[in-house]
Amino acid sequence: MDLIERANDWLSQDPDPATRDELQALIDAGDTDALQDRFAERLQFGTAGLRGALGAGPNRMNRVIVAQAAAGLAAYLLEHGDSPSVVVGYDARHNSDVFARDTAEIMEGAGVHAYLLPTHLPTPVLAFAIRHLGCSAGVMVTASHNPPEDNGYKVYLEDSSQIVPPADADISAAIDAVGRVDEMPRSDAYETLGPEVAEAYVEAVVALPQDGPREIVAVYTPMHGVGRDTLVEAVSRAGFPPLHVVREQGEPDPDFPTVAFPNPEEPGAMDLALKLASSYTADLIVANDPDADRCAVGVRDGESYRMLTGDQVGVLLADFLLRRGVEGTYGSSIVSSDLLGRQAAAYGQPWEQTLTGFKWLGKIPTLVFGYEEALGYSVAPDIARDKDGVSAIITVLEMAAELKAEGRSLIDRLDDIYREHGLHGTSQLSVRVDDLTIISRAMDVLRTSPPTVLGGLDVSSVDDLADGYNGLPPTDGIRLGLDGGARIIARPSGTEPKLKCYIEVVIPVTESIQEARDTADQQIAAIKTDLAAALGI
């Protein structure tokens, strides 16, 4: 079929009046450029599920795409088990509730019993619900911290971790085999759950803290997302003082009006929280991203506040669990700090690195703690084998309150860790692009003519992750080893049009912590300058 025929075919099976009107207007206007943008490609289903801008056509998130994904997943589940079931959750983004109901109806119509969570809830509640209900799979409709015009579709299997190969390819093939969505059987016999699953999740989180100090003053922002009610309830039941919630960001709002990007890592996203913290002289700032599977942490440092990096929070949480005698595998993604390996070794515990993406950490059988530098932490894999920003914040509050009772802070404890293992300074050179060929050219440079010196440090090794690295599955990335334990890992983002270069330097603490920090900052800045020049970005 030609472009107009394909658009009309899509139009004829689209159940959504808004996207039908959008598409009809483009057809009537003969806007071939806009039609080509929507029909030239299709959103690809992978280990991250689906994610993209809302709109009409196969290259957008819409009810047709979601119906096809639901039907394909149902076919996969029916092929791989008897009497399969699925639980479906959703956040507060535009159309999330509609996509979730469509999924439940199509699953039930296909013969997969569906449970629908009763309202918008954090992603960790959905991940928890899979094993709690004994389901074969879970679907979470969310685009996490993407811009407001996006939505997405995460798929989990029965272990409550997201899918990995070959399940992604098998589900994708089943989706490709789906016929017209207006001819799919649907059923409203799915089961809408009450509050009991979210209640069970909160009970599991509240059981994590031990008896100990509770006095801590903390400011919290849910970043216009769905984390507030669940976290506030957990904090209250765990015996901590009430959080000071950033009012302007407290209610779920799919337009995220106070931030350019609803991601605690983005510049300016934490400004309101920092301002509120100053007014209360708070000890701590904590934040979730919109679906509450990630968390960010800031600490009072004298008269101001310092936002900790994902790596710093990760090593603090690991230290807290290690000192408590939690035994098992400590895991981190390959782009996260290598410091976790030194910490685990000091306590005689195994450390395992995985590819980027929490789905890989969730597959470690003996995992007791896992983290990735992009603010994702699992402090209790028995609750859910996925990142969980709610249980992570509860653990951070417990850790900070314990240190406050000793007259110390998270920064003081972090400095202790650096004195023992060396200051591991981490940063990113991250470039968002409109032209994806910029990313492919940069990766080609690293593969064919990598730099020999960066920031005054010799490049001692070059590993192409596409060939596999240390037993990991192949992935698109390059690892550069530098003298002194420094390293760089460059990779295209899996969810955004970005090239990400993860930098780590290791500075022994021979004098003061501040001197080591200054040296690390200078070294990272020099590496960034040289790397950007080498890649032409």
Number of helices: 17
Measured by DSSP, the beta-strand proportion falls in: 15-25%
The total of beta strands comes to: 21
The proportion of residues forming helix, as a percent range, comes to 25-40%
The first-level CATH class of the largest domain is given as Alpha Beta
CATH topology-level fold name of the largest domain? Alpha-D-Glucose-1,6-Bisphosphate, Chain A, domain 3
Largest sheet: 6 strands, mixed
Task: Give the mean pLDDT.
Answer: 96
* Termini Cα gap: 40 Å
Name of the CATH homologous superfamily of the largest domain: Alpha-D-Glucose-1,6-Bisphosphate, subunit A, domain 3
Structural class: alpha/beta
Give the low-pLDDT segments.
none
Computed Rg: 23 Å
Keywords for this entry:
Alpha-D-Glucose-1,6-Bisphosphate, Chain A, domain 3; alpha/beta; 3 domains; six-stranded antiparallel sheet; TATA-Binding Protein; 537 residues
What can you tell me about this protein's structure?
Helix 1 packs across helix 3 (32-39) and helix 4 (63-80) crosses helix 7. The protein has a 6-stranded mixed β-sheet, with helices on both faces. The protein has 3 domains: 40-180 and 188-193, Alpha-D-Glucose-1,6-Bisphosphate, subunit A, domain 3 (Alpha-D-Glucose-1,6-Bisphosphate, Chain A, domain 3); 199-419, Alpha-D-Glucose-1,6-Bisphosphate, subunit A, domain 3 (Alpha-D-Glucose-1,6-Bisphosphate, Chain A, domain 3), CATH 3.40.120.10; 422-535, Alpha-D-phosphohexomutase, C-terminal domain (TATA-Binding Protein, 2-Layer Sandwich), CATH 3.30.310. The radius of gyration is 23 Å and the shape is globular. The chain has helices at residues 3-13, 17-29, 32-39, 63-80, 96-110, 123-133, 167-176, 196-206, 228-237, 271-280, 310-323, 339-346, 358-361, 389-405, 410-421, 437-448, 513-535; strands at residues 50-53, 85-90, 113-116, 137-141, 150-157, 191-192, 218-221, 244-245, 284-288, 295-301, 304-307, 329-333, 351-354, 367-372, 376-378, 423-432, 453-454, 457-464, 478-482, 487-492, 498-507. Strand 19 and strand 20 (487-492) form a beta hairpin. With 537 residues, it is an alpha/beta fold. The longest helix has 23 residues, at 513-535.
